[in-house]
Predict the 3D structure of the following.
Amino acid sequence: MSGKEKLFFRKKFLLLIEDADDNYLKLFNEISKQAAEGNEYDETKIKEGNYSGKFIKNLPFHKNYLYNTILNSLSFLHKDTKDIYSIRNLLTQADILSDKNLLEQSLKLLQKANKTAVEKKFTAAGLRYPIPKDLLKNIYAQLRNIPFRRKSFLKNNTILLS
Protein backbone atom coordinates (compact mmCIF):
# COMPACT_ATOMS: atom_id res chain seq x y z
CA MET A 1 0.00 0.00 0.00
CA SER A 2 1.15 3.52 -0.68
CA GLY A 3 1.63 6.04 2.10
CA LYS A 4 -1.54 7.84 1.04
CA GLU A 5 -3.52 4.59 1.17
CA LYS A 6 -2.16 3.69 4.61
CA LEU A 7 -2.94 7.16 5.96
CA PHE A 8 -6.48 7.02 4.59
CA PHE A 9 -7.01 3.59 6.12
CA ARG A 10 -5.67 4.62 9.53
CA LYS A 11 -7.47 7.97 9.75
CA LYS A 12 -10.79 7.27 8.08
CA PHE A 13 -11.61 3.63 7.71
CA LEU A 14 -10.43 2.25 11.04
CA LEU A 15 -12.92 4.60 12.70
CA LEU A 16 -15.68 2.37 11.35
CA ILE A 17 -14.38 -0.70 13.18
CA GLU A 18 -15.51 -1.26 16.75
CA ASP A 19 -12.22 -1.96 18.46
CA ALA A 20 -11.80 -0.26 21.82
CA ASP A 21 -8.30 -1.68 22.30
CA ASP A 22 -7.03 -0.81 18.82
CA ASN A 23 -6.15 -4.43 18.10
CA TYR A 24 -6.81 -4.03 14.37
CA LEU A 25 -4.66 -0.91 14.21
CA LYS A 26 -1.87 -2.75 16.02
CA LEU A 27 -2.17 -5.70 13.63
CA PHE A 28 -2.20 -3.40 10.60
CA ASN A 29 0.84 -1.48 11.87
CA GLU A 30 2.80 -4.67 12.57
CA ILE A 31 2.09 -6.10 9.13
CA SER A 32 2.92 -2.73 7.50
CA LYS A 33 6.16 -2.56 9.48
CA GLN A 34 7.19 -6.02 8.30
CA ALA A 35 6.42 -5.09 4.70
CA ALA A 36 8.28 -1.76 4.95
CA GLU A 37 11.38 -3.51 6.25
CA GLY A 38 11.24 -5.86 3.28
CA ASN A 39 10.63 -8.86 5.49
CA GLU A 40 8.32 -11.73 4.69
CA TYR A 41 5.18 -11.96 6.78
CA ASP A 42 6.12 -13.50 10.13
CA GLU A 43 3.15 -14.59 12.20
CA THR A 44 5.31 -15.35 15.25
CA LYS A 45 6.15 -11.63 15.48
CA ILE A 46 2.46 -10.84 15.21
CA LYS A 47 1.64 -13.24 18.03
CA GLU A 48 4.29 -11.62 20.24
CA GLY A 49 2.41 -8.31 20.04
CA ASN A 50 0.42 -6.81 22.89
CA TYR A 51 -3.18 -7.58 21.95
CA SER A 52 -6.11 -7.63 24.33
CA GLY A 53 -8.67 -10.35 24.95
CA LYS A 54 -8.80 -13.38 22.71
CA PHE A 55 -7.57 -11.48 19.66
CA ILE A 56 -4.56 -13.73 19.08
CA LYS A 57 -6.58 -16.88 19.69
CA ASN A 58 -8.86 -15.86 16.81
CA LEU A 59 -6.07 -14.40 14.68
CA PRO A 60 -7.08 -16.09 11.38
CA PHE A 61 -10.55 -14.53 11.64
CA HIS A 62 -9.13 -11.10 12.53
CA LYS A 63 -6.58 -11.19 9.69
CA ASN A 64 -9.32 -12.03 7.21
CA TYR A 65 -11.52 -9.26 8.59
CA LEU A 66 -8.65 -6.77 8.38
CA TYR A 67 -7.87 -7.88 4.81
CA ASN A 68 -11.48 -7.34 3.71
CA THR A 69 -11.60 -3.99 5.51
CA ILE A 70 -8.43 -2.89 3.72
CA LEU A 71 -9.93 -3.91 0.36
CA ASN A 72 -13.10 -1.96 1.12
CA SER A 73 -11.00 1.04 2.11
CA LEU A 74 -8.99 0.88 -1.12
CA SER A 75 -12.18 0.54 -3.14
CA PHE A 76 -13.63 3.60 -1.46
CA LEU A 77 -10.45 5.63 -1.84
CA HIS A 78 -10.03 4.79 -5.53
CA LYS A 79 -13.70 4.78 -6.56
CA ASP A 80 -13.26 7.87 -8.73
CA THR A 81 -9.64 7.49 -9.83
CA LYS A 82 -10.37 5.51 -13.00
CA ASP A 83 -13.31 5.91 -15.30
CA ILE A 84 -14.28 2.24 -15.14
CA TYR A 85 -14.33 2.45 -11.33
CA SER A 86 -16.63 5.47 -11.59
CA ILE A 87 -18.97 3.59 -13.91
CA ARG A 88 -19.06 0.57 -11.60
CA ASN A 89 -19.72 2.85 -8.64
CA LEU A 90 -22.60 4.54 -10.47
CA LEU A 91 -24.11 1.15 -11.34
CA THR A 92 -23.84 0.03 -7.72
CA GLN A 93 -25.49 3.23 -6.53
CA ALA A 94 -28.23 2.84 -9.14
CA ASP A 95 -28.85 -0.69 -7.91
CA ILE A 96 -29.13 0.51 -4.31
CA LEU A 97 -31.56 3.26 -5.29
CA SER A 98 -33.63 0.78 -7.27
CA ASP A 99 -33.79 -1.53 -4.24
CA LYS A 100 -35.09 1.46 -2.26
CA ASN A 101 -37.70 1.99 -5.00
CA LEU A 102 -36.15 5.33 -5.97
CA LEU A 103 -36.36 4.51 -9.65
CA GLU A 104 -36.12 7.99 -11.12
CA GLN A 105 -32.88 8.60 -9.24
CA SER A 106 -31.64 5.15 -10.24
CA LEU A 107 -32.31 5.84 -13.90
CA LYS A 108 -30.48 9.17 -13.71
CA LEU A 109 -27.39 7.37 -12.42
CA LEU A 110 -27.65 4.79 -15.20
CA GLN A 111 -27.81 7.62 -17.72
CA LYS A 112 -24.81 9.27 -16.08
CA ALA A 113 -22.87 5.98 -16.26
CA ASN A 114 -23.67 5.70 -19.94
CA LYS A 115 -22.71 9.32 -20.58
CA THR A 116 -19.37 8.77 -18.85
CA ALA A 117 -18.76 5.64 -20.90
CA VAL A 118 -19.48 7.47 -24.14
CA GLU A 119 -17.48 10.58 -23.20
CA LYS A 120 -14.44 8.59 -22.17
CA LYS A 121 -14.59 6.69 -25.43
CA PHE A 122 -14.90 3.24 -23.97
CA THR A 123 -16.68 2.55 -27.23
CA ALA A 124 -13.39 2.61 -29.10
CA ALA A 125 -11.94 -0.06 -26.85
CA GLY A 126 -14.83 -2.40 -27.63
CA LEU A 127 -15.77 -2.84 -23.98
CA ARG A 128 -19.26 -3.53 -22.73
CA TYR A 129 -20.42 -3.13 -19.17
CA PRO A 130 -23.63 -5.05 -18.40
CA ILE A 131 -26.34 -3.55 -16.26
CA PRO A 132 -27.35 -6.04 -13.57
CA LYS A 133 -30.43 -7.95 -14.78
CA ASP A 134 -32.20 -7.71 -11.41
CA LEU A 135 -31.87 -3.95 -11.57
CA LEU A 136 -33.35 -3.81 -15.05
CA LYS A 137 -36.16 -6.19 -14.10
CA ASN A 138 -37.16 -4.01 -11.17
CA ILE A 139 -36.98 -0.82 -13.22
CA TYR A 140 -38.86 -2.22 -16.22
CA ALA A 141 -41.60 -3.54 -13.95
CA GLN A 142 -42.29 -0.01 -12.75
CA LEU A 143 -41.53 2.04 -15.86
CA ARG A 144 -45.21 2.65 -16.57
CA ASN A 145 -45.23 5.34 -13.90
CA ILE A 146 -42.07 7.11 -15.07
CA PRO A 147 -41.66 9.13 -18.27
CA PHE A 148 -38.39 7.79 -19.62
CA ARG A 149 -36.68 7.14 -22.93
CA ARG A 150 -34.86 3.90 -22.16
CA LYS A 151 -33.59 3.38 -25.70
CA SER A 152 -31.40 6.47 -25.31
CA PHE A 153 -28.90 4.54 -23.21
CA LEU A 154 -29.89 0.87 -23.22
CA LYS A 155 -29.43 -1.78 -25.83
CA ASN A 156 -29.88 -5.47 -25.05
CA ASN A 157 -29.77 -4.88 -21.28
CA THR A 158 -26.26 -3.44 -21.56
CA ILE A 159 -24.74 -0.04 -21.10
CA LEU A 160 -22.82 0.24 -24.28
CA LEU A 161 -19.13 0.74 -23.88
CA SER A 162 -18.50 -0.47 -27.40
Observations:
- Confidence is low (pLDDT under 50) at residues 146-162.
